Amino acid sequence: MKATSVTTHNREQLASRLGREKVQKDLIFAESEKDVVQAIQWAKETGITLFPEGRGAFRTETGEVPGIRLSLERMTGVVEHSAGDLTITVQPGVTLERLQGVLQPHGQMLPLDPPWQGVTTVGGAVALARTGPKRLKNGQVRDAVLGLRVALASGKVIRTGGKVVKNVAGYDMNKLFVGSMGTLGAITECTLKLRPVPADQAVAGVAGKSWGELAVFARRLLDSPLEPSAVELVNGRVWEELFGTDTSPCGLVVGFGDEVPAVQSQLDRLHNWGKEEGLHLEEERRGDEAAGIWKRLGRLTPHHLRPAMGRFTLKLKGITLSTQTATLLEKGELSARKQELRLFQWGGLGTGISHLVLQGHREQSEQAAEWVHALRRTVEEMQGYVVVEHASDGLSSRIDLWGRKPGGFSLMKNIKSALDPEGIFPPGRFGGM
Q1: Residues β-bridged to residue 343
Q2: Residues near 135 by Cβ (< 8 Å), separated by ≥ 6?
Q3: What residue stretches are annotated with the FAD-binding PCMH-type domain (predicted)?
Q4: Is the pLDDT of residue 169 over 60?
Q5: Full strand arrangement of the beta sheet holding 87-90
Q6: Mean pLDDT across the chain
Q7: Helix pair 33-46, 8-18: axis angle to 10 deg
Q8: Which of the chain's termini has less CB crowding within 10 Å, N or C?
Q9: Cα 38 to the chain's mean position, in Å?
Q10: Is the pLDDT at 89 greater than 50, yes or no?
Q11: Are residues 103 and 186 in the same domain?
């Protein structure tokens, strides 16, 4: 089906079904699963593409395909919280901040820590598979998802998984929709696995002079019996944002979360190892101050609800073997310095996920594009990937957002064709598919 544009006539058709307060010029506000299904049926009839989203903070660039956004941000209900089973079922528009607030009195938490939890919705986190530095200990988004309700392009609503932790019925369909970016259906309900809130948490900052020496030290930590919640290698600009000092060209930020004696024991071990390696454990934060470090790191990630005026912002995600993280960051730093661009970057030495945020004036857009191309060539030579997650000021039209195709790309296209043969949901939003 060829995508068509929204007109006054077909918008009026939808408003007569949903109510005028739910339909704007380029946005549909769904308030229930029934609204989502009606919007899909309308899209089938009119040939208009739907772009499912939460609050649109991390909206993905999709090119010039005409269509209308389907916002689920008004679907904010907590359907069921089974505290004894450590599970909760919610609608997709609930923000992570609000959900964690609901769970906090029960001493429980959702083990997901993507940035900007005040605007990141549960459905958005699931659809984009967004995680944070504590992915090292807490796992991926799909590890926290027990079940979903999804409205398909046919208008049919399906349930994947279940509402209990032990669920082994057939194929794990959850993984099909986690990270699919709304290209296969609109998530209308999420059942999630919870964890107890750790009694204590700490962050240690290990200052270093080179990427290599910190990577070697981190490998000793990761190969040990210690259980860090996060091990992030950061450049000097990020170190300054986190700790307020500019004494280090790069650093290692290590997190722990456990009972108080266990956290203290691990900090002591880290301190002693640092002395042995000639490194200095320069910073230490506990409790709320430790949580604040991770929040500050998350705030370095740009989003569409907070545009930068007069400057461009570019956010890349690098995916490599965890042993290659330091190499990726070092290459990114050297290249940005050569182009005289402002770069904030950090990467998980246990996960292989790196984040690079480039800032500059509009007249530096050409240098930014060259920087992306050079970095991507280097990373793809390592058999890794570089994906553009955010691009402002028209940069998205000058840069390939995805780079080389992922393994199994043809299989993904076949799944998309089978579930959405008429192209109701956005093409190009995931891997260029």
Answers
A1: 358
A2: 113, 230, 348, 351, 353
A3: 20-197
A4: no
A5: 78-82, 87-90, 186-193, 145-151, 157-161
A6: 92
A7: 150
A8: N
A9: 29
A10: yes
A11: yes
In angstroms, how far is the first alpha carbon of the chain from the final one? 15
Record the tokens describing residue 181, joined without a space: 């970016």
Same-domain pairing of 294 and 324? no
Q: Kindly state whether residues 68 and 86 are assigned to the same domain.
A: no
- The Cα 199–Cα 163 span in angstroms is 27
Please state whether the predicted TM-score (pTM) of the whole model is above 0.70: yes
Q: At what angle do helices 287-298 and 236-243 cross, to 10 degrees?
A: 140
State the pLDDT at residue 61. Answer: 56
19: its two tokens: 């109510």
Task: Provide the pLDDT for residue 410.
Answer: 87
- The stretch 187-215 carries a mean pLDDT of 96
- How crowded is the C-beta side of 426, counted as CA atoms within 13 Å? 25
What angle is formed at CA 28 by the lines to CA 22 and CA 31, rounded to 5 degrees?
60
Tokens of 157: 């609503």
pLDDT of residue 161: 86
Which pLDDT belongs to residue 152? 97
- Ranges of beta strands (E only) in 153-199 are 157-161, 186-193, 195-196
Percentages (nearest 5) of helix, strand, coil residues in the chain: 40, 25, 35
List pLDDT tens digits, range 356-371. 999 988 888 899 999 9
pLDDT at residue 4 greater than cutoff 90: no
Position 168 scores a pLDDT of: 47
Q: Per-residue b/e over 315-336, b at no fewer than 16 CB within 10 Å?
A: bbebbbebebbbbbbbbbbebb
Q: How many domains does the chain have?
A: 4
Pairing of the two strands 157-161 and 342-348: unpaired
- Token code pair at residue 378: 């280097």
CA gap 231, 225 in Å, rounded: 14
Q: What is the mean pLDDT of residues 224-229?
A: 97
Between 60 and 353, the more confident residue is 353
- Summarised one tens digit per residue, pLDDT across range 317-344 is 999 999 999 999 999 999 999 888 999 9
Please, are residues 4 and 46 in contact by the beta-carbon 8 Å criterion? yes
Domain CATH code at residue 185 = 3.30.465.10
Q: Are residues 279 and 253 in the same domain?
A: yes
**Does residue 47 sit within a domain?**
yes
Domain that holds residue 294: 200-298
CA nearest 90: which of 139, 126, 129, 42? 126
Share of the chain above pLDDT 70, in %: 94
